[in-house]
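Subject: mismatched residue count in predicted assembly?

I count 1022 residues in my input, but I want to confirm that the predicted structure covers every chain. Input:
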Amino acid sequence: MKIAIAQINTIAGDIKFNSAKIREYAALAKKNGAELAVFPELSLPGGFAGDLYLRKDFLKACEKEISVLAKELDIPVVLGSSFGGENAVIYIDKGRIEPLSFKILFGREKKYFNGNDLQMSVKGFSCCIYSGAKELEQSLKKAAELQAETLLVLANEPFYIGVNEELTEEITAYAEKFSINIAFINGVGAQDGFVSFGSSFAVNKAGFIEASAKQFEEDLIFADFVLNTKVQIEEIPMEKQVYDALVLGLKDYAVKNGFKKFVLGVSGGADSALTAVIAKDAFGAENVTGIFMPSDITSKRSRDDAELLCKMNNIKLLEIPISKTFKSFKNDLSEIFKGVKIDVAEENLQSRIRGVLLMAYSNKFNALLMTSGNRSEIASGYCTLYGDCAGGYAVICDLPKSYLYKVCDWRNSVSKAIPKSVLEKEPTAELRENQKDSDSLPPYDILDGIIDKFADSFEGKEEIVLSEEEKQIFKMISLAEYKRRQLPLGTKLLKYSLKDIQLPVTNGYKQ
Amino acid sequence: MKIAIAQINTIAGDIKFNSAKIREYAALAKKNGAELAVFPELSLPGGFAGDLYLRKDFLKACEKEISVLAKELDIPVVLGSSFGGENAVIYIDKGRIEPLSFKILFGREKKYFNGNDLQMSVKGFSCCIYSGAKELEQSLKKAAELQAETLLVLANEPFYIGVNEELTEEITAYAEKFSINIAFINGVGAQDGFVSFGSSFAVNKAGFIEASAKQFEEDLIFADFVLNTKVQIEEIPMEKQVYDALVLGLKDYAVKNGFKKFVLGVSGGADSALTAVIAKDAFGAENVTGIFMPSDITSKRSRDDAELLCKMNNIKLLEIPISKTFKSFKNDLSEIFKGVKIDVAEENLQSRIRGVLLMAYSNKFNALLMTSGNRSEIASGYCTLYGDCAGGYAVICDLPKSYLYKVCDWRNSVSKAIPKSVLEKEPTAELRENQKDSDSLPPYDILDGIIDKFADSFEGKEEIVLSEEEKQIFKMISLAEYKRRQLPLGTKLLKYSLKDIQLPVTNGYKQ
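Triage response: the counts match. Full output below for your records.
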């Protein structure tokens, strides 16, 4: 049986849009001679829809749409949807609607769905929704009991570094071990920072990959599980995967929320440079505006680098010096601050003036303000609330600074986009004379390692032992939680991203 | 048997602090002749600790502390703690440690605990952790099977309007129905906006309340379940309960995070007036600073009202006019905004200048900036990100504007605090000439009703039918989700508070 794997990009809550997409791909599948079209997990309600899965009227609207699809589609279809209180796999064929499997739930999903046990087979195939290796093994055993030849594994897995390789290896090994054909049908596209990565594939019972879909793009592929068919899977460099995830994360946030213009503060540093180039690659240079906002202490090199970056990428660069307004604020506060020494309040003030200017531009021209803080800063709290943290989407908020340079190098290997000078200088916030990040933080490779350890400690796998330096950084991360609570959304890149961790703000366990 | 109900205020993650509190109250209980001391749900790790419940080292530290307590305490104790992967009731007696009950879980708790079935009895009493009426009935049946005379119901229930009355009635009715003594041991104190409300009580099998603890304060009460003992429960006006919750919510956030000074923008309006008075009642007038920040369009009445408010309450009032800095910003942007008409960008600019000034004061003097937006504004998005939304704690973010006036009236009935003139004028953001809230929003009583309906729709109980106006407001609420994601924490007051709802930002279901 020839099956079509429809790797589609849906919108959370937009039943009409998602349903139209399912019709379109089902028609394409039929046209190409497929006997069954398979769609990803939750493709009808859209994935990562949060508490929408609690709304009775929404759930009912989904089930109603399934009835309509069942009547209208002229090819048997397997799709993921909320159904009867479950995250379900539904089989539709000539008006018949049959739930084939319910997802085995973990973590927060238990808030939304019941997780009753169900796995059936139809026409020699069985189904499940991906929920981890252990659960997949359970489904494979059940499929063997049901004497199914093929297991359809629906998913809507978000990207993180390494996930594609892990899943491909795991599923391929299982196909061989259980001697069963497996199709992995993943969603694609971003929802509030979760980038479903696509890369669906079909592996036959000999462990040969027969068909493989694009990463980070919609795709339609076909498989009939004939033995000895084999496609060569090309390895995608991790830096490219990360870069593509960043582009799609931003792009889908913008498109699905109706933004067409984009703005960011360009400082001459690496964070804003990479963010600008990502935006250019996502929307075209003509839709991106950079604003350079020098103060009295901004160096010539910062200006040169900002100008060079925008010139290299054809990005419009505006300049708004902040010195006058900074002086005006200092004047407003002079009475109140009299006799108190200059400190971080004045540093933050400069950063916040930039935030206000950028938001004014954003409001005036309906341009999405892109925040360019990286994960190392955001974890350690080395950033200013309502200043450099301000914006609608934090493009690289989950990208560790030490890895950022590798991503920039990869992007430059495709075409020169980020000036060498930007990448070679020492990182600085330029909020006081001769300030360097290294005055306040350990070297980024060390800091990033400790942040990883912090995030991993919530995996709950093992007990951790901490050095004194690690304890200090752990405390710093806990103390900065209140800032992270007020950050815009941004693209998840790591398995345990700080945005995934629900740390209390009031927290006596600062280690 | 005389039992002591120890209604204590703990800190999430602060095992040492919580353990010391348990020792203190256990000693007091023994001194007063109690034979058993009972503590609230999760009193050792602290409640609402989020993903800390996933950290192996933290969980292990809790269990280690239980061993220490078991050796040191010289009175049998029942307490709530994480234990063996469960939200558990632990019995401690002369070195013996025995789990007596595991919580029946719902919603997000399932992320943290296993929820295995356990309910034992010791010395004629049985235990459970409160998880809803249905689950309580289950525990009562189990207690009857175990022939327990008394059920100890541990809890850490957060305040919302009506919860105290609901729970008292429910539990009292159950005691009579099942002819069993019930002690309801609730935590007290605020954690990141959840205000555990206390009001623990003991009801005997005749349905008479024997002992009752204070609302919103630590307390130690005793019960021996002798029939025909009865205390009169005084009804607390709802406006007082709400006001006290607001005071404790703010106070505990500040105390547990180390703040001693407080600042807010005082506009002359009702929101900032109420917020200022709450802060005064929580910390004393000498620790609260109001800043009045007039623009060219600020009315004389606004100034008079701001001055009167601060004078009436002995709150220090600073004045920082924003006109010059507003002019400076407009000048900075004049080139870029040339030929584009004046709109909401300029309104937001004024609000953000105020945000920057307040944050500068907050940074300079380590004063907690209190945000004074109400629930009606925050729901509808009638507020400025990084402007009036800026701050460390959003004191009244869950208080509907139409109810706010009632709370002000109640507070004024205790002692005059909020000027009549503040309460009598029409609400305005004063960001353009002659602006009124009613230009952009329906009357607040109607708006608040629709917001309630929106929040209730996530309860998932029934399908909702919407009028055209309701659809518009529902859409407005969905569209403002991105703002709410960047808000500071604030006190929960309603059963379904918008902060409890995980609405997607990218959301095709805007109804």
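The mean pLDDT of chain B is 95. Marking this ticket as 'not a bug'.
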